[in-house]
Amino acid sequence: MEQEKWGIVGIGTLGGAILKQLSNGKRFIDFYHPNAEKAAGIAQANPGHQSLTVEELDSLDFLILALPADRLVPFVQSLLDSGLSLTSVTLINMATVVKTAELNRQFPQLRFLGMKFMGHAVDLRERGNGLFITEPSERAASAQERAIRFFEQIGQVIVDKEDVVEEVNSLATRIAVKAAFELEQAIREGGYRQEYASRALVSVAPEVMRAYASGTMGHFARKIVEQLLKEQQES
User: How far apart are CA 54 and CA 52, in angstroms?
Assistant: First the structure.
């Protein structure tokens, strides 16, 4: 069976994290960047991953679009304007706020498949084990099965409505920012130095939350949890 040809465009925070995690498992794909000098830099920083020419994009089976939301449609349109057909390529939409169904309506001759990342790209880069959400697709059912197997190399894939990614990411971000505001205020009102606030925000709080999620909190943190649960029961 002929090996699937995968490519990626958009080697920013998310795209770079995907390349790094694939590299960790000795798996490599091709990437595209329109600037030859930057493409050479990406190849040097990610040994094993090879640069593609724009013409070679048409020969791929899958092209991951790890692009910012406002650049995704213009990029696809630029490829079509350059003469590429892309009709045999499954285009993987990773932009959280760009609806895959809308892309399929806007480009009816193409095949888009959503694969949205839930979480923070820095966490994916450093720790792997990403969480990806793909919405059921009758239009690309066969391709979706293969895409799920590919992304399972770097994490877990859940089949669900893709809107859940924006909803959960927004909820988590809002609560996290609110907690950061409250922590800064508490440090300030307690008369502590600003350096302590910075350390609490970048180290103490994130690691406590990570330990809480994984069930690995120490004795001190568990005592605080018990205290908070008791206060909830009494209120």
Answer: 6
CA distance 83 to 98: 24
Each residue's pLDDT tens digit, 59-103? 999 999 999 999 999 999 999 999 999 999 999 999 999 999 999
Q: Please return the burial class of 9, using the count of CB atoms within 10 Å of its CB with bins 0-12, 13-18 and 19+.
A: buried
Give Cα 234 distance to the centre of its chain.
40
- Length of the chain measured in residues: 235
Q: In this predicted structure, which of 1-10, 167-176, 200-209 has the lowest mean pLDDT?
A: 1-10
User: How far is residue 160 from each of residues 41, 151, 234, measured CA to CA in Å?
Assistant: 37, 15, 38
Distance between CA 195 and CA 79 in Å, rounded?
49
Cα–Cα distance, 50 to 31 (Å, whole number):
6
3-state secondary structure at position 133 = strand
Cα separation, 149 vs 108, whole angstroms: 26
Question: By the 8 A CB rule, do 69 and 96 touch?
Answer: yes
Task: State the amino acid at position 214 in one-letter form.
Answer: S
The structure tokens listed for 82 are 């350059």
Q: Which pLDDT value is given to residue 1?
A: 39
> Helix 205-214 vs helix 219-234: angle between axes, to the nearest 10 degrees?
80
Query: Does the model's pTM come out above 0.70?
Result: yes
- Measured CA to CA, the distance from residue 202 to residue 191 in angstroms comes to 19
Closest CA to 64 of 29, 105, 27: 29
The answer to whether the CB of 32 falls within 8 A of the CB of 10 is no
